[in-house]
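ping. complex inputs:
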Amino acid sequence: MIISIASGKGGTGKTTIATSLALSIEHGQFLDCDVEEPNAHLFLKPEKEKVETVSVTVPEVDMNLCTHCGECGKICQFKAIVSVKKSLLLFPQLCHSCGGCIKACPSGAIKEVEREIGIIESGRVKDIEFHHGILNIGEAKSPPLIKALKKKINNSNTVIIDSPPGTSCPVITSVRGSDYVILVTEPTPFGLNDLILAVEMVKTLLIPSGIIINRSDIGDREVFLYCERENIPILMEIPNNREVAEGYSKGKTLVETLPELKEKFRELFKNIKRS
Ligand code: SF4
Ligand code: SF4
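pong. complex structure:
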């Protein structure tokens, strides 16, 4: 079973929930798909076992063969290759590796070459297999790295995915194929606004979801009323707690600070499996 933890915006406590759920069920796989800013390792502290580089293919042009016909630029929808008078401009970071320009080139001047976009680090935390991706600085597109990371999934395992925040392509790439999405929010106007977007996203992807309300005793009741109106289950409420914030600043997970929550997370996991 694949459970993704997502949130419409950053800073809601998504990683806190993901890492605590993983430590409560104590088996399976954990994937940190927030590849632009992975931080689950700071809390789970896995023993690193393996590092792999991840590359995508991009075109390389042999200017000795190029006749400047412009066909490659015409077919590229992403403006990653542009023919300008007697030269060609290549923007590898915009390339989606579709291979269209290679097929379109009548002179055979274009070949594919590998371009490294990031790495995947793997390790273990107790009985949990841990993987996270680290996107190279300045890299524009994270979905190819997230897709490479998700190839680590063994479908016979329980898999926890810590998704990037927001509702754009990296999030959709992360949560697609999940059996359930836990959306983490907080009861504030910003929290509600981004939660609505996240709920729409998972509905579009036809994935069942439930909400965890973090810092549930701050803000107002609008998030609760929204969940009631939309018939979205509230899986857990976690009150604001200074001890948890202090623990977080020292790299402690929620269940390390409040071990009594482990049982609640186990119950939550069983309920999701039953749903
Ligand atoms: S491989 Fe596709 S996206 Fe990349 S430059 Fe060629 S046509 Fe554009
Ligand atoms: S399609 Fe091939 S020959 Fe034409 S401009 Fe592009 S690289 Fe040059």
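The radius of gyration is 22 Å.
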